[in-house]
Amino acid sequence: MKTAHEIRPGNVIMFNDAPWVVQKTETTRSGRNAAIVKMKLKHVLIDSSTETTFKGEDKMDVIVLERLDCTYSYFNDPMYVFMDAEYNQYDVEAENVGDAAKFIVDGMEDTCQVTFYEGKAISVELPTTIVREVGYTEPSARGDTSGKVMKPAKLVGTDIELMVADFVKEGDKIEIDTRTGEFKKRV
Amino acid sequence: MQHSHWDIFCAVVDNYGDIGVTWRLARQLASEHGIEVNLWVDDLRSFGHILPALDPKLPCQMVEGIRVLQWNTPLDLPYVAGEVLIEAFACELPDEVKQAVRDAATPPCWLNLEYLSAEDWVEGCHGLPSFQPGGINKYFYMPGFSAATGGLICETGLFEARAAWQTDSSNKMALFQKLGLGGIQAEDKVISVFSYETEALPALCELWSEGQQRVHALIPKGRSFNSLKALLPCPVEALTPGQRIELGMLTLHVLPMTDQQGYDRLLWSCDFNIVRGEDSFLRAQWAARPFIWHIYQQEEDYHLVKLEAFMQLYCDNLASEIAECWRNLNLSFNQQQATAVQQHWQYMDSHAVPLLAHARQWPIDALKTTDLATRLVQFVKNSLR
């Protein structure tokens, strides 16, 4: 059992005897530090998607499916193609990659985990932390060194914008938490 | 046959906040929508502070048309599934209740009533189902300020009653007298204070004590006074309701405990209100008076994000100069910036008239046409369809 707070895109959770792949999670804070987790789920077996909400502490069954360490190979619209150590290729539907897709860039070497259900690759999970290069960000405006002042930045190879500490410069490599999509630190 | 009553479960966390909101909702559902409501509360003693008619020793009693039940763990009163089941503010329902829901031939419409927030994400979560074991959905009901949220708690006729009260200044003077708050003249500035501990409060008291105008701060025994220990002649525990502490132009009054209606009238009667949490925060808005919201502190200062989201809404139709002043006042109070809060208070004093005009218009703009209880009843109808 995992709490909703611990669920990540790519996990497959069971509800009422049906497997659902988690495509997207969005954690927000309610009052008194309680968390609300909004998830986008897709039924693994039938073409059905839903949005649902959980308390951060709600527990759910995460089913352990066959998983393989893979690296990203290329995008063959609408499939992301991953490859294992023996050069076998697996197609994962872009829809099932969910928010992780924004961190997938050509040439990336991160070890991802492709999940299989009844022999079919159904989702992929990125490492919790990935390192990406900052392609564009404005120069530091305030000379802040505390890391609390944030500014937008774009990553190399993607149009995704995220907030980074004010001291981060173009060309810096930064750690990103793939669960939240948030900047962690400069490498 | 399915029972038509609604059950609301409330865990009392901070004395008056969660139960304050829940009680208001229960009363409105019963009085305005004719719904039979069972209100399960885990701490009747605290509840009794805002509802003097309650006997905390009774496990089950009718108060103002609501059946109030003692929620013990394990549950020692029978729960029978009704039409609706509400867990207030994400409280964890007893296992017996969850099992009864699963076993019910027709499960109740199960709702998690969440905290009020002005943040954007609330719209995206309002009304979403939450998978539960047994194939039952629970719905997240998110109060909020926009049409895409669950709305705001406000009884029918409240604004009219408040306007009538504020039209005649003898009402407030009579209330102060009734509460044993002596020495207040009609022209004095009166400020209610219901905050958490903060360094901003002694700073404001210092400013008020050295000002030109007589100021009366009405403060219940509790957390606000914890911040004012250095100004008190005795320990906080020894303060008695009605006691007065003179500090130059400022008089601190120890406010007696009042029920919800009494607290509303107090907010209506003051020139400025400092409020905390959720229930008093909303009542301060309905009071049509300027206020500071001392928001419940969250990890990593996330409460400031919530404060900013509300201030952005509140200031939408406010002249930028006044908006900035009011925002700075709230931020400095919540960040315990003693010097800044003094400066912003003084600046705000010079904008008192337009700020008061805005405070009068805001409730009309915020509530729009329907309140939370009405929207909730409609939501349940749509969900059960």
From TrEMBL, chain A:
<dbReference type="Pfam" id="PF09285">
    <property type="entry name" value="Elong-fact-P_C"/>
</dbReference>
<feature type="domain" description="Translation elongation factor P/YeiP central">
    <location>
        <begin position="67"/>
        <end position="122"/>
    </location>
</feature>
<dbReference type="InterPro" id="IPR012340">
    <property type="entry name" value="NA-bd_OB-fold"/>
</dbReference>
<dbReference type="InterPro" id="IPR015365">
    <property type="entry name" value="Elong-fact-P_C"/>
</dbReference>
<comment type="function">
    <text>Involved in peptide bond synthesis. Stimulates efficient translation and peptide-bond synthesis on native or reconstituted 70S ribosomes in vitro. Probably functions indirectly by altering the affinity of the ribosome for aminoacyl-tRNA, thus increasing their reactivity as acceptors for peptidyl transferase.</text>
</comment>
<dbReference type="GO" id="GO:0043043">
    <property type="term" value="P:peptide biosynthetic process"/>
</dbReference>
<dbReference type="InterPro" id="IPR013185">
    <property type="entry name" value="Transl_elong_KOW-like"/>
</dbReference>
<dbReference type="InterPro" id="IPR008991">
    <property type="entry name" value="Translation_prot_SH3-like_sf"/>
</dbReference>
<protein>
    <recommendedName>
        <fullName>Elongation factor P</fullName>
    </recommendedName>
</protein>
<feature type="domain" description="Elongation factor P C-terminal">
    <location>
        <begin position="130"/>
        <end position="186"/>
    </location>
</feature>
<comment type="similarity">
    <text>Belongs to the elongation factor P family.</text>
</comment>
<dbReference type="InterPro" id="IPR014722">
    <property type="entry name" value="Rib_uL2_dom2"/>
</dbReference>
<dbReference type="InterPro" id="IPR001059">
    <property type="entry name" value="Transl_elong_P/YeiP_cen"/>
</dbReference>
<keyword id="KW-0963">Cytoplasm</keyword>
<dbReference type="InterPro" id="IPR020599">
    <property type="entry name" value="Transl_elong_fac_P/YeiP"/>
</dbReference>
<keyword id="KW-0251">Elongation factor</keyword>
<dbReference type="GO" id="GO:0005829">
    <property type="term" value="C:cytosol"/>
</dbReference>
<keyword id="KW-0648">Protein biosynthesis</keyword>
<dbReference type="Pfam" id="PF01132">
    <property type="entry name" value="EFP"/>
</dbReference>
<dbReference type="InterPro" id="IPR011768">
    <property type="entry name" value="Transl_elongation_fac_P"/>
</dbReference>
<dbReference type="Pfam" id="PF08207">
    <property type="entry name" value="EFP_N"/>
</dbReference>
<dbReference type="GO" id="GO:0003746">
    <property type="term" value="F:translation elongation factor activity"/>
</dbReference>
<comment type="pathway">
    <text>Protein biosynthesis; polypeptide chain elongation.</text>
</comment>
